[in-house]
Specification:
mainly alpha; Ferritin; 10 helices; about 60% helix; globular; hydrolase activity; UCP07580
Length: about 290
């Protein structure tokens, strides 16, 4: 078995990232074979929500990579190593969601419109201060970490999913939990000369903006995908609402973690949930990249 790429990060008053944290690059591949049934998540609403999410990841994660890399100059060696591992993980996630999106397309879903809208939205970020892109990345990385925690902690989300699709989402979730502090620590580095008020104000405003756009766009995307299954009107809206807020209820369940982002002293590792990584990491042990 190859040795993992390992990064240890010091803990201090501004950065409670665990000192013994390991960021491991797992070079896994999924969904290269026969497509599963059209409703891979066990129901149409789970299928629509996860297809809508996945359709945004290839361009979105490329954006995350560039936003973090833009602020790596002058980073201490530990943070620089964190960023390199983050980039490797996100490149692999992009590749696997391209494969997953192809799976959705093969099953008959048209997700090209979602990708086009993401492309158009990202085009609007050109020319604006790079620190804003990092603030957006930091907020969205908090979303991915919250959902990753929920997906790993609550097996109900994927209990009826195709096994290989389930494995892909769990693999992605493990690495999102693992690198959940990288964008935030890069932000602390990039804004080290800012006042605490200025830092809190910008990241809080950006989280509110990101939250509004995230749910508006994913809701629209999911409803469009449901319409492709012939589910429209109140039935589509009510079913999607119940899926997100009642059972399995990912939005309801992540709300406390979302609210914690607004604490002035917030850091992603205030909640150390590495036990979830340990619960699944053995399943991907054959895909570890060698250390450099």
């Amino acid at each position: 078995m190859n040795a993992p790429t390992t990064i240890s990060v010091d803990q201090n008053s501004a950065d409670p990232t665990p000192t013994d944290l390991e960021i491991v690059v797992r070079d896994e591949r999924f969904n290269r074979g026969t497509s599963p049934s059209r409703w891979w998540a066990g129901d149409a609403f789970g299928t629509a929500w996860h297809n809508a999410l996945s359709a945004t990841f290839p361009r979105g994660e490329a954006f995350f990579i560039e936003a973090v890399k833009a602020h790596r100059e002058g980073a201490n060696p530990k943070l620089a190593e964190e960023i390199r591992a983050f980039v490797k993980q996100e490149i692999n996630h992009t590749r696997e969601h391209i494969a997953f999106n192809r799976l959705a397309a093969d099953a008959g879903y048209d997700i090209a419109a979602i990708d086009k809208r993401v492309e158009e939205m990202l085009a609007l970020t050109k020319g604006r201060p790079p620190i804003l892109n990092l603030a957006v990345t930091m907020a969205l990385e908090h979303y991915t970490a919250m959902m990753a925690h929920e997906f790993l902690a609550n097996p109900k989300h994927f209990e009826n999913a195709d096994p290989e699709v389930r494995d892909m989402w769990r693999w992605h979730a493990v690495e999102e939990v693992e690198h959940k502090g990288v964008a935030f620590d890069t932000w602390l580095h990039a804004t080290q000369d800012w006042t605490a008020w200025r830092k809190w104000k910008l990241r809080s405003i950006m989280m509110l903006i990101v939250t509004g756009r995230f749910f508006k766009n994913r809701w629209t995307d999911a409803l469009n995908l449901l319409a492709q299954d012939g589910i429209t009107g109140w039935k589509a809206r009510w079913g999607l609402f119940k899926y997100l807020t009642v059972s399995p209820g990912v939005v309801r369940r992540i709300f406390p973690a979302w609210l914690s982002y607004f604490k002035p002293s917030f850091h992603p590792w205030d909640h150390d949930d590495r036990e979830l990584i340990g619960k699944y990491e053995g399943e991907f042990s054959d895909a570890l990249l060698p250390a450099e």
